[in-house]
Amino acid sequence: xxxxxxxxxxxxMSHGVFAEKMLRPKFKDIKIWSEEKLVSHKVxxxxxxxxxxxSMEVHQELHDVDIHLEVRITNKLDPMYTTTLNTxxxxxxxxxxxxxxxxxxxxxxxxREFGNIVESCPIAKGSYFxxxxxxxxxxxxxxxxxxEFDIIWExxxxxxSKKRTLIMNDHFTGDFTVQDVNNLKPGIFAMLPKSV
Length: 196
Ligand SMILES: *[C@@H]1O[C@H](CO)[C@@H](O)[C@H](O)[C@H]1NC(C)=O
Ligand SMILES: *[C@@H]1O[C@H](CO)[C@@H](O)[C@H](O)[C@H]1NC(C)=O
Description:
- Residues 1-19 form the signal peptide.
- Pfam families: DUF1091.
- The chain has 196 residues and is of the alpha+beta class.
- The protein is built from four helices and nine strands; from the N terminus they run αβββββααββββα.
- The protein has helices at residues 2-18, 91-100, 102-112, 188-191; strands at 20-31, 39-46, 51-58, 64-75, 78-90, 115-116, 126-133, 147-158, 164-181.
- Strand 4 and strand 5 form a beta hairpin.
- Helix 2 (91-100) packs across helix 3.
- 9% of the residues are buried.
- The chain binds 2-acetamido-2-deoxy-beta-D-glucopyranose (2 copies).
């Protein structure tokens, strides 16, 4: 009995020692659509050991690709506090940048560790994936608001005659909530090369 009690207390203490406060997303709804003739893709998320897996099958060579991204983040207690992002990015130009600049190479290298990613344009037929992707986290000490997010991600293929075709259309909704976690992913500084 006493041993049991001590064990429970130790467990509670160790939980207190290792748990850290993190602002983490909790997805409510993930809607994924692919055009299927040029591209098929899938996105899955595991909340308990947070990571995303993204996989994409390119069925025909892609000449050029634009990504349209709309993000809305709203404070649940104060809807006036809303941040939005509405932007279109050209993947081929980003890859050009990633291959030329040191920051681009760092980010690209970081993502590359998670799988087989697109390296250059045109994008060759084949399988691409990112497995167990998660961004670096740092513990939160400030009091943070509970946030709601709404993300729309669309990809367009642009062929040689500039014709645009929607090839991916995903919609993610959920909340960012502060959680006690004991599986913190290392912060951005932990990722930098150790022996410079
Ligand atoms: C993501 O991929 C990894 C490696 O293949 C696998 O172990 C993991 O279970 C996958 N996660 C989900 C949510 O399917
Ligand atoms: C984002 O921008 C596009 C084009 O500028 C516009 O059609 C669309 O309505 C905008 N979306 C939001 C949520 O404001």
